[in-house]
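Backbone-to-sequence.
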């Protein structure tokens, strides 16, 4: 019997610190949005089982009388090209695990996993008129340093799914140990983790969220902003992009010095191009964008709706 049940795709956005979830209608409307501490949900020893338990609870609480069309999940990880396995995660202990198949078996709906930054950039692209040949670079500074490269109408994934790991570009002379196991990665000094350490060491007289308000001009913050600008400009010099999208929790903090960051990016960009006319935009709503991006990816690329790039 045909019923007129509500239809939803569940979007899940797993970051280094928080898990966000919501149900998204085919018109891309977000419902039942929740933000949780990842440590309260994810059992490191049984990640798949704990995610199934969480999703089961979410569905029973909110979507009991609705049709769930699929589940899209973003991880802060290298994700396999078949979009089923998490291959490696820097800031969570999830490595080489098939996430999609057991969840798909349990809920009997399509389940697709993807790098979380690709979801964030997918959402921004779906909000804009993007032409076919445009190159768009996304830089998301949260717990780590996330990067996404959109080229030839798709997200660059490389041979294994590991393309765009800008945070793990080595820096000569830097011996700090990165959580990926290498030493000298960009992420060891250009990430939210670094900002937390700077706050503890030099700025503990103000709450963390006031660091930029009070200390944007201090030597340590000026150097921190420069450390973000160098890898961003490096990738701009490789791709000569049409659009640069910058976001993430650090960039969304009160009084983040955007002008200072832009000046430093331009300083390191090749002149006259790609420096001249470089377009930089900010992803303003990163709170729900990962959930919307996860669901939009499923609708656009897996459930047979139109492709988002117009
Ligand atoms: Zn690394």
């Amino acid at each position: 019997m045909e019923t007129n049940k509500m239809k939803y795709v569940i979007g899940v956005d797993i970051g280094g610190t928080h898990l966000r979830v919501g149900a998204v209608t085919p018109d891309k409307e977000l419902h039942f949005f929740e933000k949780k501490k990842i440590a309260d949900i994810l059992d490191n020893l049984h990640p798949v089982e704990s995610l199934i338990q969480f999703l089961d609870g979410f569905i029973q609480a909110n979507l009991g009388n609705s049709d769930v069309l699929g589940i899209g999940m973003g991880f802060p990880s290298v994700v396999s090209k078949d979009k089923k396995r998490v291959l490696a995660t820097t800031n969570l202990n999830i490595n080489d695990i098939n996430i999609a198949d057991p969840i798909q078996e349990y809920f009997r709906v399509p389940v697709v996993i993807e790098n979380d930054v690709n979801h964030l950039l997918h959402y921004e692209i779906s909000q804009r008129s993007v032409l076919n040949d445009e190159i768009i670079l996304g830089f998301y500074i949260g717990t780590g340093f996330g990067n996404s490269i959109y080229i030839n109408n798709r997200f660059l994934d490389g041979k294994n799914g590991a393309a765009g790991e800008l945070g793990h570009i080595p820096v000569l002379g830097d011996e700090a140990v990165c959580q990926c196991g290498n030493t000298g990665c960009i992420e060891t000094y250009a990430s939210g983790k670094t900002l937390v350490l700077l706050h503890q060491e030099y700025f503990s007289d103000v709450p963390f969220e006031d660091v930029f308000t009070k200390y944007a001009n201090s030597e340590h913050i000026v150097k921190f902003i420069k450390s973000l600008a160098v890898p961003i400009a490096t990738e701009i010099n490789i791709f000569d992009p049409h659009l640069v999208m910058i976001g993430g929790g650090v960039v969304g903090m009160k009084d983040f010095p955007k002008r200072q960051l832009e000046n430093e990016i331009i300083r390191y960009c090749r002149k006259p191009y790609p420096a001249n006319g470089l377009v930089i935009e900010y992803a303003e709503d990163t709170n729900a964008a990962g959930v919307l991006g996860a669901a939009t990816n499923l609708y656009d690329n897996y459930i047979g709706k139109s492709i988002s790039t117009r």
